[in-house]
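FAQ: What does the model actually see?

It sees only this:
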Amino acid sequence: MTGDGRGVVAHAGSVAVRMLADRTGLTDALSSAVARRGFIPGHDRGRVLVDVATMIAAGGEAIADIDTLRHQEQVLGSVASPPTVWRALHELTPAALGRVEQTRAKTRARVWSLIPGGLPACTVAGTTLPADLVVLDVDATIVIAHSEKEQAALTFKKTFGYHPIGVWCDNTGELLAASLRPGNAGSNTTADHINVKQLLEKVARCRQVSIEGRGPF
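And it is asked to produce this:
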């Protein structure tokens, strides 16, 4: 490590995330998914969404952190400003979000098909499951917020924040779907499990699904 090196690029790994989205076709597919007739944005909205994901992967915690990418224009090219990012997110209607989910699902299916040997098999209770079986891990987790943000509330652990419920692919560790909930939401609330299950149905791609975790289904 060095604090005075020359030619050093901060957050160099961000380039790999960007390139992965581009080369798998995700960026172009997102652009088509959120395109609006008669509207030609200065910053392609698919690129904006990928940049936001890249910023989060690099440790960003607020929209303003997109500036960490904007400062690397010579490496990453043009990056939207925080106000433009806010506008792009505000433009995402429920219908557009549905198309985004479908786009992510199609891209994920394509990437999975490129894995040598296919998806890695899961091991449950010492038993290796069939290689073509996708195991879904459904669980809730606490996310602490340090201020009274929208929907944040006291949690059962006496902290303050959110209690989202998510679905992970146990084969790969990917987060497939999630539902934001206030901190005082219950872990086994049936309606919330049904809601996240409905979100998951948009990305499900296999004939056999095993549900593992706390849940009524």
